[in-house]
User: Fold these one by one.
Assistant:
Number 1:
Amino acid sequence: MAPSGRDDRLRRVVVAWLVIDGDLWDHPYDSSPEARERSRLYNISTLVTLTAGVLICYLALYVVNLVWALFVLDPAVMGGYLQTSLGYGDLFVLAWFVASAATVGGGLGSGLESDEAIRAAAYSKSEEERRHRLARQRNSDRGRSDRR
């Protein structure tokens, strides 16, 4: 049994959790069309990057679990302990279940990390510098408007 449509929902939930918990959603710093477009592009690139990362890690985990299960587990022996008939197809299901549970666990575990650590993993150094520069610019713009 290969990964199914439920896995797609699982990946969407993990990506949504990473974006929300890591505060990765970009907000425009003003109401100009350029700022809104820039934020839209950054948000799309964040979602595409995280989705690709979660998908690649999920598939790698699935393959590793499947190879390990085929190497270590004998369906006949496992079926004897469970008192049911098992075949090699059941190992595909087992690998799917373990990869899915580990993906959810990894996503939830990211909540234990700081927002800075999540952003460092999600963004390049130049992106971090851009975000700091925009934050300083926003703060200086607010300071000027407060003095008026």
Number 2:
Amino acid sequence: MAIWLPILAVLLLVGSFMWLKPSPRDQFLAKLRSRALAQGFSLGSLRVPDTSAHGRVNQRFQIVTLYQLPVQLSASSGGHFTVLRTTGEAGAYLPDGWAWDQRDGLNESQYQHLKNILTALPVSIQLISLSAGSIGLSWDESDPELSFERLKRVLTDIAQVAQQRLVGSA
């Protein structure tokens, strides 16, 4: 019986250290996000409505990780918006499967270009957000098909749509 006490103490000590070790998923996300930072992305988070059927019925919210790039928009170039993938009804001017969380100051031409871009996006991109200082997206980080170069192209295309009003008015 006396031998079990030291064994139990060692097991308790080892077990508590095992809880401190990051899981394989946490290690994967840390490496991925470090590569994103090296590629020029900044990381942030955003609280958005849960657009799943359960989330809509129960008015739930979720916090998503945003991969952002800086963007310089002038006051005359339009507004800001956040669009989310949804299993419910599409938002006005959006393709099926997308809904607005917020939108402000976009013109008809910008809506059409945005719709075309959203239609072509892979399913793993879940959210796109444009604000005065940055443009970002949230995606399924385990999707091997998406590269940081592809994410940058998507964000650059959408930033160009936001700048469209400047080009049209010049």
